[in-house]
Amino acid sequence: MKDIIATTSIGEGLDFACNLVSVSLSEVARQKPNLMKELLHYLTSYIVYRYAGEEELALECLKLLGEYTNNTPLFQQKQFWAQLIWVAEQMDVSKVEYEQHYSK
After folding, report:
1. Closest CA to 72 of 15, 28, 12
2. Does 83 map to a domain?
3. How many domains does the structure of the chain reveal?
4. pTM, rounded to two decimals
5. Does residue 70 belong to any structural domain of this protein?
6. C-alpha count within 13 angstroms, C-beta hemisphere, residue 57
7. Within 10 Å of residue 18's Cβ, how many Cβ atoms?
8. What is the Cα–Cα distance from 83 to 9, expressed in whole angstroms?
9. Please, are residues 57 and 47 in contact by the beta-carbon 8 Å criterion?
10. Which domain holds residue 92?
11. Residue 3: inside a domain, yes or no?
């Protein structure tokens, strides 16, 4: 992985990844209004889990949001998945799911 990760903590990493994916959420919602409920659910779940200290659940919510936004023009896909891989490494959880998306 050659992407530069500028964050220095798990929390910063999660929040930066959330920022990357958030740019594309409105585009997905406009293209597929039927997904709005799910997108909002995962975004609010991320916020709840992140600030309750449930970082692994927050990471999972970001992964799901990334899967929904993967093909949108504004989504910085490589940077997002690189960020999630870095966070997973810092948390000592499996990064296999994230690497699959990164290599696409």
Report:
1. 28
2. yes
3. 1
4. 0.88
5. yes
6. 13
7. 19
8. 11
9. no
10. 10-102
11. no
